[in-house]
Amino acid sequence: MIERTLPGQPLDGHRSRGQALVEFSIVLIPFLFLLMGVVDLGRGIYIYNGVSQAAREIARVTSVHPCDPNACTLGNSTETLAVVATQKKLVPGLGGGGASIVLQCTSITDASLSNTSCAGGDFVRVTVSVPFSVITPLLSMVAPSTLGSTTHVQLH
Asked: Is the separation of the CB atoms in 2 and 105 below 8 Å?
């Protein structure tokens, strides 16, 4: 009996059994790197957006309530401390080690002034930074290790 094969069908069915597995394993590694890279990019954008928003929000509240009237040090008002506590809960990594929130009293030219003698018309500079680590092995060589943002707002 003569077997007929369809066009494109291999003559020996045993030869093509492992072909799909080999092709899948070749494509899987670049696909996973691409997928993890997209996840890292999304995480980075989310954290950077949170850091920027935290800097803006802390600067806004500090410009209205710069210090506690009893002991005037920039950023020790109850309103500013409440916003800092809230932002530490909202931004991933801001409440942990390596993160920093720096408040500095500055002039219009961004020259640093004393943090105990900020007056109306001066500016407050808020710098927020958070450590960031990627999950993709190859991106760890080129990705930033910290994400930060600075906001400069005039005191009211």
From this structure: no
